[in-house]
């Protein structure tokens, strides 16, 4: 039955679960797969999530299909390890998230009214999540924000939690003033203090910049990804323009490259996509 299932391309998730079971079999499975643990697989899980985001950013839907499969495999991997250790199973994980979605959407699956704004529904969602955290003995406002999130994303999540209990600047202008203050403190640390102090002040500045993004309704991860893509595109164009003249960046002056950079920017503005 196992081989029939493994080769049945219409078997869906059952096929994938059986493939993972066979890969993890201590006697007949793949030695590499057998050795893996939650800890060794976790970095791959994070990497696959970023590759999903990258495919979406590039609007490469064929690539996204493959990346979503890779990300699904990570969930199957973790649940297989969990089942072997007696912690949980794939089915219990599915049941858990299904229950959570039903509980968090009483306006869809219960008697609550759907006649609410998106903002009100978001507040209701956060109230339900807060009640869930209380049930897990998470008493502090910041409890439950994952430690291993990317630092920029975690900063925003921490700020959102603090804002819910009133610890937030009421006006965007105050956040901008704080950025000016933190930038001055960074300069002071650079000029008069050691490296550790400079790292601390840089962290403070980045934290406040993330807060400004939150106040403006901008996702800082998305904004930085866009800028990374823009920088890559423009620098590649500068390299190509230099190459036409038989030069490379390392053979050029900063002034030459700045002039080409400005030309690329002007061309992009004149011909927006």
Strand content: under 5%
CATH architecture of the largest domain: Orthogonal Bundle
Q: If you consult CATH, what is the topology of the largest domain?
A: Helix Hairpins
**How many domains, in number, for the residues?**
3
Low-confidence stretches: none
The SSE order reads HHHHHHHHHHHHH
Total beta strand runs: 0
| Overall morphology | globular
CATH homologous superfamily grouping of the largest domain: MazG-like
By DSSP (H or I, 4+ residues per run), the number of helices equals: 13
Mean pLDDT: 90
Distance between the termini: 54 Å
Q: In CATH, what is the class of the largest domain?
A: Mainly Alpha
Structural class, by secondary structure, is: mainly alpha
Helix content: over 70%
> Mind summarizing the main beta sheet?
none
> Measured on Cα atoms, how large is the radius of gyration?
25 Å
Notable characteristics:
273 residues, mainly alpha, Helix Hairpins, 3 domains, 13 helices, 73% helix, 0% strand, hydrolase, NTP_PyrPHydrolase_MazG, EC 3.6.1.8
């Amino acid at each position: 039955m196992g081989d029939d299932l493994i080769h049945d391309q219409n078997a869906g998730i059952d096929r994938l679960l059986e493939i993972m079971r066979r890969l993890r079999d201590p006697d007949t499975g793949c030695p590499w797969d057998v050795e893996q643990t939650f800890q060794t697989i976790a970095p791959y899980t994070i990497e696959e999530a970023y590759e999903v985001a990258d495919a979406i950013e590039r609007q490469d839907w064929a690539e996204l299909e493959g990346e979503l499969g890779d990300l699904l495999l990570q969930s199957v991997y973790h649940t297989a390890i969990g089942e072997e250790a007696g912690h949980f199973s794939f089915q219990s994980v599915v049941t858990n998230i299904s229950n959570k979605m039903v509980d968090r959407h009483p306006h869809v699956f219960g008697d609550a009214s759907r006649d609410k704004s998106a903002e009100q529904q978001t507040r209701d969602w956060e109230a339900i999540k807060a009640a869930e955290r209380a049930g897990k003995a998470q008493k502090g406002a910041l409890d439950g924000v994952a430690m291993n999130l990317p630092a920029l994303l975690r900063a925003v999540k921490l700020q959102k939690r603090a804002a819910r209990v009133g610890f937030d600047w009421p006006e965007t202008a105050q956040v901008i003033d704080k950025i000016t203050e933190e930038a001055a403190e960074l300069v002071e640390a650079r000029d008069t203090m050691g490296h550790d102090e400079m790292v601390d002040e840089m962290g403070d500045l980045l934290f406040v910049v993330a807060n400004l993004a939150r106040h403006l309704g901008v996702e800082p991860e998305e904004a930085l990804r866009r800028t990374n893509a823009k920088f890559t595109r423009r620098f590649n164009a500068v390299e190509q323009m230099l190459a036409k003249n038989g030069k490379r960046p390392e053979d050029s002056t900063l002034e030459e490259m700045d002039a080409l950079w400005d030309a690329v920017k002007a061309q992009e503005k004149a011909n927006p996509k």
